[in-house]
Write a structure and sequence with these properties.
- It is built from 19 helices and no strands.
- Helix 1 packs across helix 18 and helix 3 crosses helix 14.
- Helix content is about 70%, strand content about 0%.
- It is an all-alpha fold.
Length: about 375
């Protein structure tokens, strides 16, 4: 195996591990074969009393019954997920419905992001668009009144901002370029991600880290940092769509099958179905294999006039034609995506230094890029309100 191929294999494995981690630490550990402490053999056999013959027979019967039940439940899950997969493919074919109903993207958001990306941007052009989005107006007012930002701007007065129009002026166009895409993506996040309670937070944190990493890398590479931050933030919109679709589709189809099994008095099937929950392996594979392509379709349909995202997303999702080179923004986004996944894995002690080195080398990180990213805060935007 060549060094480049080895690096590629490592990069793919680590990216998959990061997707597994979205769904839970213990699930990600199981996927890479970690041994749980309780399962370690410390060399001393545990003393057990001798089982009576009748107990041995009963235990064997229970084990056989349990094994049969597990097989039946696994079969029920497989059949359920075949139906779910077909239903999701049908829904994903209608990308307009995915955008407006599944994710909840209003047309005003792409328009606002487009305006913010050009030199002719003005608060006057943004006002009517923001006023039509009550949730965004509320977010901006809440944001500008946070004690941290209120202290920055209230040098001579303690006026509390109470309207979106005033909030826009206080925050300022330069800051809005970072604030609006962040609030938009947070607004699109699923309300609940049960039975994966940390999934919503990890999706949000990954988007933030990806956007900030893209901004920092853009500065070092002569790329427009607003373009980089915005696309870094939007990059996981496909994951948001797939998580929402899967959890909603699972619930609808599962409920229908449970009702049918009860009505037809299929007791074993009914019992097996009641034990089923959304499958982390199915969802992790779905996110790993399809999220970026869904993001490409969503971003394409957002029909930006000034933000140059269309060809970047095509390069991220399709092999480059022979002789073609990736656009500078494409390279920035690839590295930002990698680094956001890396810091998540690092936080959970799920990546080794030699693995990370191969990953970084595969994507051609420079030493100066890694030094800059190592000292970057990925939790908050770097803005100041005067």
């Amino acid at each position: 195996m060549t060094d480049k191929l080895r690096q590629q294999v490592t990069a793919k494995a680590l990216s998959q591990r990061a997707h597994d981690l979205l769904l839970g630490h213990s699930f990600a550990q199981r996927q890479i074969g970690y041994i749980h402490t309780l399962e370690i053999d410390y060399g001393e056999p545990i003393k057990q009393r001798t089982l009576l013959e009748v107990e041995v027979a009963a235990q064997a019967k229970r084990q056989k019954s349990s094994t049969a039940h597990h097989k039946y439940r696994a079969q029920a899950s497989e059949q359920l997920h075949e139906v779910i997969e077909t239903a999701m493919q049908k829904q994903l074919a209608d990308i307009d419905t995915v955008i407006h109903e599944t994710i909840g993207i209003e047309d005003n958001i792409p328009a606002i992001l487009d305006i913010l990306s050009v030199k002719s941007a003005s608060v006057g052009r943004l006002e009517p668009l923001v006023n039509d989005l009550s949730w965004l107006g509320r977010e901006l007012v809440t944001f500008v009144n946070l004690p941290y930002y209120r202290a920055q701007r209230n040098k001579h007065t303690s006026v509390k901002v109470d309207s979106p129009s005033l909030a826009l002026r206080y925050i300022g166009l330069d800051n809005l370029q970072f604030v609006v895409p962040t609030f938009a993506v947070r607004h699109w996040m699923p309300h609940s991600t049960e039975p994966f309670p940390l999934l919503k937070r990890r999706l949000r944190d990954n988007s933030m880290a990806s956007a900030i990493a893209a901004q920092e890398l853009a500065k070092l590479n002569g790329v427009n940092e607003i373009h980089a931050f915005t696309l870094g933030m939007l990059l996981d919109v496909g994951k948001i769509a797939l998580v929402r679709l899967y959890l909603r589709t699972f619930e609808l189809i599962w409920q229908r099958k449970v009702t049918l099994a009860r009505e037809e008095q299929q007791k074993d099937l009914h019992t097996a179905l009641l034990e089923l929950k959304p499958d982390p392996l199915f969802l992790s594979t779905l996110l790993s294999e399809h999220a970026l392509k869904v993001s490409e379709k969503v971003i394409d349909k957002m029909a930006f006039r000034f933000l140059p995202f269309k060809f970047v997303m095509q390069q991220l999702t399709s092999p480059l034609a022979k002789g073609d080179s990736p656009l500078p923004l494409t390279e920035v986004i690839q590295k930002a995506r990698c680094y956001s996944q890396y810091i998540t894995l690092l936080d959970h002690q799920m990546v080794e230094s030699d693995e990370a080195a191969q990953w970084f080398e595969y994507l051609n990180f420079t030493k100066s890029e890694l030094i800059q990213l190592e000292k970057t805060n990925f939790q908050n935007f770097h803005i100041k309100i005067d």
